[in-house]
From TrEMBL:
The keyword NADP does not apply. It comes from Plantactinospora endophytica. The keyword Membrane applies. This is Autoinducer 2 import system permease protein LsrC. Part of the ABC transporter complex LsrABCD involved in autoinducer 2 (AI-2) import. Probably responsible for the translocation of the substrate across the membrane. It holds the Pfam family BPD_transp_2. InterPro entries: ABC_transp_permease. It comes from the Bacteria. It is a multi-pass membrane protein.
Length: 353
């Protein structure tokens, strides 16, 4: 029995589209790596200027504060980058962070001698559960990610407020061993920052070295072509949302360790900073390109801007304007790079023809 295929829709067409997409991803990768280098240079310039104005900016305590200030945002940005690469977005990470942070505090109130590992597992597991809810609604029910995560942002925050019922957990109620995580360091690097570095390295290795990680880029570049190529788009998007939720839960535990004092408002509004960090870091908002390393650089840059502006005697209200300008510039650069990639691919196809 023979099978007929429609012109342009058969296996040959799918293979051609997949190869074209792969070539575009390789070219786009080179361009966005160059962009990440530019972000790193901008960060170095900002730190250099601020240090010239106030040499104490890079003192021992100043370096500690800079690293701690970026830690939570980096962890959240890594998870968000994985989601945005698939052409989706997770706006609920701030609410998941707050829920996991308060759950960590309640755990230690109920079990003062609970091991720290248990707190990490509980917070991360709660985040994974929230990610499963997001992933099921987005990947299985096929509801747009923006709509789903905007809704769960309020749902998770409402659960947090209902659970807290106005209660505040003070640092004095937390075990000293857990609180020391927020101040301890290893060879001058804060322990919490090492958590962020570990998350970054694992995520970067996975996206580069595993087929399922590389398939996330294919999904973001062209979901239809990815399906024709046999990629389980729904399951990959589901997994990305679960990872984002789990990392938001881990960030909630780190938040509790750093600040100690917890209430239902923890993490409110941070989701916008997370998306901004990812976009500024070179992850295309339309999916398919960028890296978690760039997202981490974007997070460090934004947190450093927040610390540098007061030192430079710039009105803190300008911080939001600066971040907004960076987002607009990043999106404009995304479009310019995408057009450049498309033009080069068209030129290659013309030469091949």
């Amino acid at each position: 029995m023979t099978t007929t295929t429609r012109p342009g829709a058969g296996p040959d067409a799918a293979e051609v589209r997949a190869r074209s997409g792969a070539a575009g991803m390789r070219l786009g990768h080179r361009l966005f790596v160059a962009r990440e280098v530019g972000i790193g240079l901008a960060l170095v310039l900002l730190v250099g200027v601020t240090t010239a104005v106030n040499p104490r900016f890079l003192s021992g305590q100043g370096r500690q504060d800079l690293m701690l200030g970026a830690t939570i945002l980096v962890v959240l940005a890594v998870g968000q980058a994985i989601v945005i690469i698939t052409r989706n977005v997770d706006l609920s990470v701030g609410s998941i962070l707050g829920l996991a942070a308060f759950a960590t505090g309640k755990l230690f109130l109920a079990m003062p001698d609970a091991p720290i590992v248990l707190a990490v597992l509980v917070g991360t597991g709660l985040g994974v559960l929230c990610g499963v809810v997001n992933g099921a609604l987005i990947a299985v029910a096929r509801v747009p990610a923006l709509v789903v995560t905007l809704g769960t942002l309020y749902v998770f925050r409402g659960i947090d407020y209902s659970w807290a019922a106005g209660q505040q957990i003070n640092a004095a109620d937390m075990p000293s061993g857990f609180k020391s995580m927020g101040t301890a360091d290893l060879l001058g690097i804060p322990l919490l920052a090492l958590f962020a570095v570990a998350v970054l390295l694992v995520a970067g290795f996975y996206l580069k070295s595993y087929r399922s990680g590389r398939e996330l880029y294919a999904i973001g570049s062209d979901p239809a072509a990815a399906r024709l190529h046999g990629i389980p788009v729904g399951w990959r998007v589901f997994g990305a949302l679960v990872v984002s939720g789990g990392l938001a839960g881990l960030a909630g535990v780190l938040y509790a360790a750093r600040y100690g004092t917890l209430d239902a408002a923890a993490g409110t509004g941070i989701e916008l900073n997370v998306v901004a960090a990812v976009v500024v870091g070179g992850v295309a908002i339309f999916g398919g390109s960028g890296s978690v390393y760039g997202a981490a650089l974007g997070a460090v840059l934004l947190s450093t801007i927040g610390s540098a502006l007061p030192v430079l005697k710039v009105n803190p209200f300008w911080q939001q304007a600066v971040v907004g300008a960076l987002i607009l510039a990043a999106i404009g650069l995304d479009r310019a790079l995408a057009a450049r990639v498309a033009n080069r691919l068209r030129g290659r196809k013309a030469r091949g023809a």
